[in-house]
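Reopening this one. Same input as before:
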Amino acid sequence: KEKSNNLDVKVTESELQTEGKGMEEESTRESDSNILDVSSDYPREKHISIQRHLADLEKLADLKEDEKKPCPLCPEEKFKACYSHKLHRHLQNLHWKVSVEFEGYRMCICHLPCRPVKPNLIGDQTFSKMGAHYHCIICSATITRRTDMIGHINRHVNKGETESRFITVAAPKSSREVLKESATDVQVLPNYSTPQKTDSYFNPKMKLNRQLIFCALAVLAEERKPIECLDAFGATGIMGLQWAKHLRSSVKVTINDCNENSVTMIQENCHLNKMKVKLNTKEDDNDDAMGDGEENTDTIEVTKMDANVIMHLRSFDFIHLDPFGTSVNYLDSAFRNVRNLGIVSLTSTDISSLYAKAQHVALRHYGCNIVRTEYYKELAARIVIAAVTRAAARCNKGIEVLLAVALEHFVLVVVRVLRGPSPADDSAKKIRYLIHCQWCEERVFQKEGNMVEENPYQQLPCDCHGSMPGKTAVVLGPLWSGPLFNTGFLRRMLFEAVQYGLDEAQPLLKTLVCEADCTTLKHFSTHSPYDENKQEECGVYIKTPNTSAESYLVHGKRKSDEVIRNAAKRQKSENSAEHPAFYYNIHRHSIKGMNMPKLNKFLNYLSEAGYRVSRTHFDPMGVRTNAPLAQFKTILMKYSTPTYMGGQAEGPVHLAEDVQAGEQVQAAADSKAEDAEFLEDDKSGVSPATFTKDYPTHCAAD
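Same output, byte for byte:
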């Protein structure tokens, strides 16, 4: 019995040992399988191919001068054991030189059978399919190519996943960076200015754009309180945070984004700025989701929806669209539920198509035929407004353009919504085609009407078609032919920019006010424009000294007949004072061999000749004027001096004083006659010295 008992004990011990070995083998298999699992979160020891220094890699081989050692990263079938000097060169040239560096570590190339092999491969086929690969230091992925490994690491960094799961050390600090703009703090990820490499895109170059939109919202907040505003593409939430932080209880801010990572970052940025967050990811939302205004002070609603969905489900007073590229895909839903007299602002960043670099894309997105012209930036703004007008008209709504800005990186359009079929018809009638001469850059909108003209070239003021062979003009459009600015609204935006200390927006707004009035005078008052009579704006409900806001701001009701008649009268009075369409570049129309006058002096010459004139933000050397191109060239020629006279600035000024004393500006035909006489005198053999000597005398005689 004792022997049998001893045998039973031995059997049980052997069984336990075999079971223990089996458990160890299963655990090793599980650990090996977990190495291939990318989603593992607990820290593990790094792979042997990941080292800090070459000496650490050589320690794995245990190099000795008198013994042959195998390579720790290659199987024996691929690289046989050798002496230390040969193994050192092998590790340095084959593994270390082609490694990928990250945070002080080197991910060397590995030839071990780490990657899974297809089960139908046996024998030599298995080793032939086991190519070189890299082990990721962050996750457990194995990647064959070095370039793919570098891209794989960069994607981890862009997503903020820089904590290595293979290194048993303290986790590094967060890679997020905190930026501050207009007293608002936002957290951003690495490569935050590259939209293709990050979920939460933040562009510091768009600061001016954000300030202009804030000024427009601040003006609307003075007209009605509180207003519901939507930032349809939040990204980091910087724009909505600025609205809520500065305007406080005047606005109810909703920040939307369809990306889950962006929504998480928006919530963190709200807490960073000490704002309360109300998260809403349901699509069955209604207008009462925010509750009362007193309860939601300093509260921002964050939603995770598609922009078209949230604009279809809810109504807003102010909507801003800033997608990647074109915004035409969101215009129909934006105008579907926007409230009457609300504002829709959109930022288009597809400048390659709008600035006529990709004309086929402009035809596809906007349905417009365009070419590269000297006024291409204003052409881009009118293309966007035409698309906005058509989208609003489909919803029986008209628009009034408050602001149109086209700069290097974006095109910003701000419009006010006028509900009703009559405003929609009036806005749709302002979409017309443009006839553009490709020789002299003269342009004119086609006449209204559906009748076909036999010779459309007759509408152009120039005679290039008669003097040049072939077809000289092209038809561009359809484009918006109405005004691009509202002077009263721009003045109130300037007041808000001064009040909130937006220094970058103030110079641009001053230029826009002068451009809207088409004048060079810059007289800006610093007192509040809300105390003055504001009946200069058409279709806008604003305060006046004799009336209260309640008589105008009846939310959700139509205007009375008296208000409609007053608006029509203001509209007729303002149409006569609209700024002229498009502008001329002074360098484009300069005369060869002549020195042009200074731009500001040239503007004075045009103004003294009886034309409306101003500078334009679209082009620093552009001149917006109602003068025809022939008169523009005549005045430019008249006050230009020959290059060989030295091109002094005093020449044109004295010439202007002598001529303007008793003469008016001559017509286009007279200018052509003068050009012919000038050429005949030049051909008659007059030397430059004689011409220089007699030129002031001729000028004085004239």
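So the earlier flakiness isn't reproducible anymore. For the record, The first strand starts at residue 50 and ends at 51.
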